[in-house]
Amino acid sequence: MRKLTIAIFALLLVLPLLTACRSAKNTGVAIKEGSEAAADQTTAKLDDASITAAVKAKFAHDQTVAAHNIDVDTNKGIVTLTGNVSSQMEAERAVQLARSVDGVKDVRQNLVVQPQ
Length: 116
Fold this sequence. Notes:
Layout: H1 2-60, E1 70-75, E2 78-85, H2 88-99, E3 106-113
Parallel strand pairs: 2-3
Antiparallel strand pairs: 1-2
């Protein structure tokens, strides 16, 4: 009878420890998954910033596009071009240059043609 009492007492002591270990493991998994999601979001933002910089650099090196007149925004690989251009040819060239950048999924052209 005494051995049974000791065994039950030991089980009662160990059971909360096992539950705590499982809870800690689950918490660790949740933290890992949350960290991975945050890393993915950060990478996406860095990729968007890199895309924007690359598009602006292409504009700056092009003879047709007036880079200072075009605002470039990137969100999840989708580039939006906003601003004023002097011709339809300049608008088309801006879109062509933006599409040529690695990582660009789509280009939204919101350019207004205002001949000089």
